[in-house]
Amino acid sequence: MRDDTLLSIKGLRVEFPTQDGPLIAVNNVDLDVTRGEVLGIVGESGSGKTVLGLSSMGLIDRPGRVAAGQVVFDGQDVTNYPESGWRNIRGNRIAMIFQDPTTSLNPVQRIGAQMIEALQSHRDISGDAARQIIRDAMVRVGINSPDERLDAYPHQFSGGMRQRVVIAIALLNEPDLIIADEPTTALDVTIQAQILRDMRRLSRDTRTALIWVSHDLGVVAQIAQRVAVMYAGRIVENGPAEKILKSPCHPYTQGLIASMPGNAPPGERLHSIPGGLPQLSNLPPGCSFAPRCVYASSACNMIPELIQTSSDHAVRCVSPLDGGG
Amino acid sequence: MEHVIELRSVERSFVTEPDFADRVASMFGAKSNARTLRAVDEIDLTIGPGEVVGLVGESGCGKSTLGRIVAGILPQDKGDVLFNGRALADKTRLKDGSGLGVQMIFQNPASALDPRQRIGDAIAEAPLAHRLIHRSEARKFALNALQRVGLGEDALNRFPHEFSGGQRQRICIARALAVDPRVVVCDEAVASLDVSIQAQIINLFLDLKQELNLSYLFISHDISVIQHVADRVAVMYLGQIVEIGTTKELIEKPQHPYTKALLAEVPTLDKTLSEEHALKGELPSPLNPPSGCRFHTRCPVATSTCRSERPALEHWKVDHQVRCPVVTSGKQSFGR
Predict the structure, then answer these.
(1) How distant, in Å, are the alpha carbons of B32, B34, B62, B204, B254 from that of B17?
(2) B225 contact A CB<8A
(3) What is chain A's mean pLDDT, rounded?
């Protein structure tokens, strides 16, 4: 573990009981986030990327549970933290931004009141002082004339503006870490680009670490320094963004990038990964990706380890591609 | 080229429902303050046989409304919608079956299927209702339709919840094709799918187009999808087409300032977004669109005339039209 490691996840396993036995949403995940780093977590639906984000904030609700492993935040083991302990961390030292800003905001409370609440629940601060912090936070995310906006209700904002308010709230207590779960998926490309720019600038200026969860590789390429690719609850590849997106070593990452419509000549058949996503309650015995993998062999009947191919790049595959592609 | 679909100056507005206070006020003689939203305006569009026309724009620009008008689900207020040269709303078309020529596929396949209807029944329902097939051959017909979209016999007796999102979208495609349409309107048909599944469905659309010589109106907010499937692309802004041209031409040499900005904001693997916003401000409310050119409030090249005069869609090249006088007046020569 490096000195400036902020969040360290070791061997994390999150289970949800079902009629057919436990569903393992996050399976033996190791992940480190250093201060000021932007980590992209990429995966399709059911890959466990959202549950991983939630478990980093102690937000796994019963009957789900952390079955194994630990989450260490800033040197403290928070895996089995009591709810009272989490209250000091959540919204204060770790903030979260969700996909749909409409459901993150209270529809019957003015924006200003919601922001003051977020501040005063963590700090003993007067209303006037809180208002000043709020104004600054709103200007920082590109909301001009914040005074007029503070008395508005969420429905009076457009989708992009609402997401900016949510980001402003996340920034209020100057968190060390922001976990953003598909924060731009519900937005138009033009608004998405604005939010991406804002977040890129903010993480640079404030040295806030950022975990950016997304299914969209193009978006992750804009913001992340490091990328972890998840498939069926496991991290299958983890390394510098540039390297993973330009020359992936795992067949799944390679297939995912080749499936993007922009990466094939127009009108021709796209490369597509055969088959469908596996059901988490009924995973194949060996490598989860083997049934869809064109390179699969009998060696794939064992679950492969995450192997370091270089000091900063790890791949979970028995025969990783050389990444020359 | 004969057009399968032709739209001539199509217009459609929605009027806000008066709420209780408005109704009480109008009882006392107050002026109605119902607001009109012109969802699509001055739309001229053609789709040829076997052609894929892509429609892009931000949410609220009217692309779904236009798709529904083309599919005949929503009537237009003004203008003509012609299918093979005849009005789509022509009631006599129902008798000869040509009213089934345009079908639609929606974004969310889960809500497009009846959760309590078996897949085989769902596919055979429309052809049976329109007497295209006999009940005795329904099962065989449904099986053929399923095989065409890559599903097998075991799907026939199952229910929608037993399938994944990608498979459900395949079922919706089989269902739309069951009445042998010539045109399929795909409204964000791949938007809800995962990347690896999305590629499979896009391939299916391309294969079916080849096999059946289908035409598509392909609506998507994802420009890379449109770029891949479409022969021509129309860009919409606040209810109007602001630019239309062949895909290569429009993507490589966009002319309208809005198209340029929109393309600049698409995040891709090999491009880093510039630090500067390509578009200033927010999308104006379609309830109260700007005067003159609707884009002038956010346009980097707007002049004073843009504020007052409504521009028309003009030719920039033979296959490329732009609704921007600043661009079209500055052109060197008409033609190739």
Answers:
(1) 11, 7, 19, 41, 39
(2) yes
(3) 90
- CA–CA separation, A42 and A45 (whole Å): 10
Does the structure show a pLDDT above 50 at B336?
Answer: no
Contact B273 A197 (CB under 8 A): yes
pLDDT digits (tens, 9 = 90+) for B80-117: 999 988 887 666 666 666 678 999 999 888 899 999 99
Inter-chain touch B273–A193, beta carbons under 8 Å: yes
Pairing mode, strands B232-237 and B240-246: antiparallel
What residue in A sits closest to B165 (Cα-Cα)? A276
**Contact (CB<8Å) B198/A264:** no
* Among the listed residues A73, A103, A104, A75, the one whose alpha carbon sits nearest the alpha carbon of residue A89: A73
Q: Do A193 and B206 touch (CB under 8 A)?
A: no
Whether A147 and A162 share a structural domain: yes
The CA distance from A158 to the nearest CA of chain B, in Å, is 9
Say whether A193 and B267 touch across the interface (CB within 8 A): yes
**What's the domain range around A278?**
5-93+173-315
Largest CA distance in chain B: 68
Q: pLDDT tens, A168-207? A: 999 899 999 999 999 988 888 888 898 899 888 888 888 8
Residue B95: its pLDDT value, please?
Answer: 63
Q: Is B59 on the interface with A (CB under 8 A)?
A: yes
Identify whether A243 is part of a domain. Answer: yes
The pTM for the full model equals 0.88
The verdict on whether omega for the bond into residue A63 sits within 30 degrees of 0, i.e. cis, is yes
**Residue where a domain terminates, one of A133, A157, A172:** A172
Predicted confidence at residue A194, as pLDDT, reads 86
Contacts of A270 in chain B (CB under 8 A): 199, 202-203, 228
Co-location of A198 and A150 in the same domain = no
CATH number at residue A236: 3.40.50.300
Are residues A142 and A192 part of one domain?
no
